[in-house]
Amino acid sequence: MPPSDERYLGFLITDCGRLQRTVFDRRVRALGLTRSQWLVLRRLDRNPGAAQSELADMLEVEKATAGRLIDKLEENGWVERRADSADRRIKRIHMTQKGEEMNRVIRPIARAMVEDALSGLSAREREKLTDMMIAVKRRLQAMAAEPAPVREKG
pLDDT-derived band of residue 3, with 50, 70 and 90 as boundaries? Predict the structure, then answer.
């Protein structure tokens, strides 16, 4: 008998990610920032001056999507675009002081959300879950790098 959707791992992973986004967005809504926008700030915190195309790669989104996120963040004064010193065609994205402050405000909210989600697990279970998810992620990354299988029409 096939597993119910509730026990199907693919659905569980997807559902957890979707619910995490929903909870996070609800917790930060009053701050005027979405989870997607915060992810840009987090990536910029770790990679100051990244180009829009680099951010798109880091976020695993299309360049146009990254551009819209950056536009909104810039509109709110959280980031600014600066010309690259070596290539004037490239705009480097930098967090403003306002963006850095927002990042500092959001970080504990994100940590608390994860802590709340994992509150029913022991420290050992959390460690094991993390190790297993890292292993799954690495395998999926390797699979994503492989050429797509050729299917014969039949």
Answer: low
Long-range CB contacts for residues 4-10, cutoff 8 Å, separation at least 24: none
Of 52, 82, 78, 57, nearest to 67 by C-alpha is: 52
- For residue 48, what are the domain limits? 5-105
Question: Number of structural domains, the chain?
Answer: 1
Residue 142 within any structural domain of the chain:
no
Averaged pLDDT for residues 29-40: 90
Q: How many CB atoms lie within 10 A of CB 61?
A: 17
Which of 87, 8, 90, 96 has its CA nearest to residue 45?
A: 96
Count of CB atoms situated within 10 Å of the CB of 12: 13
Helix, strand, coil share of the chain (percent; to 5): 65, 10, 25
Mean of the per-residue pLDDT values for the chain?
Answer: 91
What are the φ/ψ torsions at residue 76 (nearest 5 degrees)?
-85, 0
